[in-house]
Amino acid sequence: MKLRKKALAGFVATSLAVTSLAGVSITANGATVNLGVNVASAADANLQKLIELQKKLNSSLATNANVLALKVALSGVDHEDAVAPLYAPFSSLGLTDEEKSALIGLLKGIVLAPVDNEAEFIELLQTTEVKSLIGEIERDSGIDITVEDFAALFVALNDKAYSALISNPTYAGGKTAFVESIAEAVLGGDTSGAQKASDLIEHYFTSNANFKSAVLDTFENYMAAPGVKDAFDAALPSIVGAFASANAPVYGGGGGGVVQAGNTDVAKALETLAGLKDKIAKATGDEKAALIKQAIDTANAALASAANVDVSKLVAISGDQASIKIDAAAIASFLKDLAALKAALAAAVGNADGFVVPTLTFNLGTVAQASIAVSLPADVIAQLTTAGVAKVAFAVNGLTATLPISGDFAKGIDFKLNHKAATSAETGGRKAVSELYDFSLALGGEAVTKFNQPIFIKFPFQTVAGVDQEKLTVARVESNGTLKVQGGDVVGNTITDNFRHFSPYVVVENKVSFNDISSVQAWAGRQIEVIAAKGVVEGKAAGKFAPQDKITRAEFAKILVTALNIENDDATTDKFTDVRPGDWYAPYVAVAAEEGIINGRTATTFAPTATISRAEMSTMIARALKSVKGVEDVANAEAALASFSDAGQIIPSLKEGVALAASKNIVIGTDGKFKPNDNATRAEAAVIVYRTINTK
């Protein structure tokens, strides 16, 4: 069977068919089921949810031109032939012509509800033929047909459909493949939880798989009718957008008691995007570009707001141990928000280009226990990956650990931290401004000591009188009790660093002084002390910095990589024949090459021991700013260099880099000259690196 456009309308339609029963009396086994007009007072929450969905869908699609055009195309279809795959299991019931006509009408309404005539369908449900038909089906199957039971089934199908929509709201691979994938997700799985509905499906279709095939075959028949396929293609984005928007504000609980209210930022954003759709369609030129940017910014801002999930209620306490297992229910609301925003953006703009899926943060709140364990199972990670999430973060007590969820991390994450006050012995006498944290990690249930993707940890620290915040650093407590300075970026009262293996860590003030920098104290003294405090540079001997010594290319590669916190002790490169794996600078050169920060003096040589020129140093800085901090090139390099009278001496391939560094005031000339080919000193390198790490 060749599948065509089928399932999206099908699952929505099934839900809507049941919601249409509100306020309608149906005779079943001689009893009258009257839901009444005000179903909001009914005990069954599933039915209420479907009714709310129906209202929102009707509101979105009632006057949609593409949906109206699809209705016109469907009006000429022979519905008896089209629904034959769904009708076949009922053909042996011996129905009267009137009952057969009623069943065909019901099946048509179930498959086509989003674009069917709602008033006609509700009128059909009130006819004596439908009441007689339901009675006949009940007698044949021995199953009581209740609205509530089918509502439970259709809520489950609706939620499955919404989850499937998350992975591909822009129809990557084509609309046919998109609809087919949703059909598989919605109709190919278990329908348990609504037992009577499941029993009825099994009685007439033998299995869910057969029921799914019948729905898909029916849709294939409709899509084969003249004009329907093209009309459905045109209407599909509107149906998807309406369905996503209708679902987004509806949140449920379960799975450990997580119940999240709808994100008001998302709700407002969806309204804004809906309002922008027509404006964008009518606008041209700069006005259209501005509206598209507004739509993208609106969607991204709302998703960023939704990407902070409060899981504090899931934290379990046992003595001095706290633990949490993050389940699918904890991410459900975020995934709904993501899908709704992406679909709404695509509906408004025509695509979801520019839509950014941020790091998803799980906020554990404040936890007093000394040991905290977080588990993120592989099946939850798979859902997040499918939705486009690349990283997750665990936030507790002001500390945030950000982890990738690809590669080995996709196997399942068990992250643990222990925290306590740091002792003077553990800090080597340095002043501690944070607790001492000891981390451990297991991936797929196996403990790991090293990981090939970095984990970023943001440590909170206290404001302590007399402490120089620029000299704060993350420090690693080695197994022999010594302290290894790590560096880190200070923002507010936090400091962030990245890690490829775990040990105990603490934030300390690291005062470093040199007795030979008086000659450069006025313009480089402070900068040397600060980057030395962060472990970026070291003295050549005890108390000796040697500020006037020339710096080599290898030395500067190490300084820059360390300053930017992108070290990887295990990094290697075979790009340069003069950088051997055992060389002290090899991992720094490898990282810099991988990040695009350095090129060789030739295609195969790096010249590690050669001195570095001011122009080369500026270019490496510029590449680092672009690679690590996302800084963009200057629009006009010649203009940026105009203040230097010797700009013509800059090697052409280095001009863009020098221009960018100069535009950020990272490199400054002397007496109107840049002196591009002069060799840089250690003091100059310290100043330039200090400015680099403070560039935003």
Automatic annotation (TrEMBL):
Domain of life of the native organism: Bacteria
Domain SLH: 511-571, 572-635, 641-696
Record keywords: Signal
Keyword Zinc-finger: no
InterPro entries associated with the record: Cell_Envelope_Struct_Comp, SLH_dom
Signal sequence range: 1-22
UniProt entry tagged with the keyword Signal: yes
Protein known as: S-layer homology domain-containing protein
Phylogenetic lineage: Bacteria, Bacillati, Bacillota, Bacilli, Bacillales
